Amino acid sequence: MTMEIIFTKLSDEEHSVAVRREDHSQDSAILNSRSFLRHDLTHLVVESELPIERGFWGQVAAGATLSGEGMGGAELSLAESLAGPVQTLMRLDTEV
Length: 96
What we know:
Elements: E1 3-9, E2 14-21, E3 26-32, H1 33-49, H2 56-61, H3 74-95
Antiparallel strand pairs: 1-2, 2-3
């Protein structure tokens, strides 16, 4: 499954995320960058590099909403358990 993901900076505090799925359906959200940007990007990297097909982004590609409606399962839990520590490592690296 393929999907186009577009992150757009709206201000120093907010960004938008827009997706266009393979079936041409779309979804978008405006999010607080401090809370979500690094986490969403971490999910993208972790799920792209590891064999996680039904993590956050895989479920969005399959039709779940960016707000989390229609999500669940073991692969999402695995993606969350990996994204959290990787996000922490990224934050520690930028503070040095």
